[in-house]
């Protein structure tokens, strides 16, 4: 599936993030819990270097809990903490401060020895588009987003945001990368809406999704759409779903666009239950 993914602002954004890293104590990297590998920018390790990092696996209720736990174990390192959250509902967000305290314990001890009791940590929020950065910031700021003030080296379009956790956050635009070489990555990003539907073939995308679900989650499809069985041909399964849902045009023909939009909307909304598209 051909996808035009790389916008012109990416190089500038990447450069600004590198420049602004010196202004923060840690990085909060956000990923989609359903596509934890595909929703990682492959440049992020190089960009962040040894900077302490918390990886938030957002929309965790849409992925399988046991798979997410396996990912947490796989990704956790000495300088990287991993946490499953749901930013729109605020689930798990209070644990961000706990993990940040663990990562920055040495810094906190140094400041306390100097007699500094009020310690404010600063973190940069990074992640690909549509992964939930705005939801995180709005939830932590209780929708009272306020500039903390100009700080040296911060470009004019950056904003420091106070949060209820006592952390100052620096927001950044969604970080993309120039080339999607993996077909699996392209599909996973498109399935979850990280790539806009307007630039993909929605019918081809739905066909690929039904093919995947038919292989790994057949009972979910049969139950959701009240199908007696599944064909080995994903196109036939889409046709049967369309008939069950009334996605039919004059003459009894299947309305492929309508059923494709329906399938993707229901997958993205969790109507098919928790689904993990990748495993560690």
From TrEMBL:
CDD domains in alphabetical order: YlqF
GO molecular function annotations of the record: GTP binding; GTPase activity; RNA binding
Listed GO biological process terms: translation
Subcellular location: Cytoplasm
Domain of life: Bacteria
One GO CC term on file: cytoplasm
Domain CP-type G residue range list: 11-178
Binding-site residues for GTP, renumbered to this chain: 58-61, 130-135, 174
Gene3D superfamilies xrefs: 1.10.1580.10, P-loop containing nucleotide triphosphate hydrolases
InterPro entries xrefs: G_CP_dom, GTP-bd, GTP-bd_ortho_bundle_sf, GTP-bd_ribosome_bgen, GTPase_MTG1, P-loop_NTPase
Transmembrane regions: none
Keyword vocabulary terms for this entry: Cytoplasm, GTP-binding, Hydrolase, Nucleotide-binding, RNA-binding
Primary location: cytoplasm
Homology family: Belongs to the TRAFAC class YlqF/YawG GTPase family. MTG1 subfamily.
UniProt function note: Required for a late step of 50S ribosomal subunit assembly. Has GTPase activity.
The protein's name in its UniProt record: Ribosome biogenesis GTPase A
Organism in which the protein naturally occurs: Clostridium luticellarii
Originating gene: rbgA
């Amino acid at each position: 599936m051909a996808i035009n993914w790389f916008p012109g602002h990416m190089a500038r954004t990447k450069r600004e993030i590198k420049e602004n890293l010196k202004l923060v104590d840690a990085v909060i990297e956000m990923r989609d819990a359903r596509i934890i590998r595909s929703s990682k920018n492959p440049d992020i390790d190089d960009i962040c270097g040894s900077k302490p990092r918390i990886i938030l696996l957002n929309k965790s209720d849409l992925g399988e809990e046991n798979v997410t736990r396996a990912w947490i174990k796989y990704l956790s390192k000495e300088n990287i903490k991993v946490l499953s959250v749901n930013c729109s509902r605020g689930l798990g967000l209070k644990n961000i401060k706990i993990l940040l305290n663990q990562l920055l314990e040495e810094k906190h001890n140094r400041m306390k020895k100097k007699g500094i009791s009020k310690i404010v940590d600063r973190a940069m929020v990074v992640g690909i588009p549509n992964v939930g950065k705005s939801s995180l910031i709005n939830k932590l700021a209780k929708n009272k987003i306020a500039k903390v003030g100009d700080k040296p080296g911060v470009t004019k379009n950056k904003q420091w945001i106070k949060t209820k956790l006592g952390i100052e956050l620096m927001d950044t635009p969604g970080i993309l990368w120039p080339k999607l070489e993996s077909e699996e990555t392209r599909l996973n990003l498109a399935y979850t809406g990280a790539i806009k539907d307007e630039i993909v073939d929605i019918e081809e995308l739905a066909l690929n999704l039904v093919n995947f679900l038919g292989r790994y989650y057949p009972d979910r499809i049969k139950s959701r759409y009240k199908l007696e069985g599944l064909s080995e041909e994903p196109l036939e399964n889409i046709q049967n779903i369309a008939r069950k849902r009334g996605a039919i045009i004059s003459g009894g023909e299947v309305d492929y666009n309508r059923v494709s939009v329906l399938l993707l909307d229901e997958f993205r909304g969790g109507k098919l239950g928790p689904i993990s598209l990748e495993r560690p």
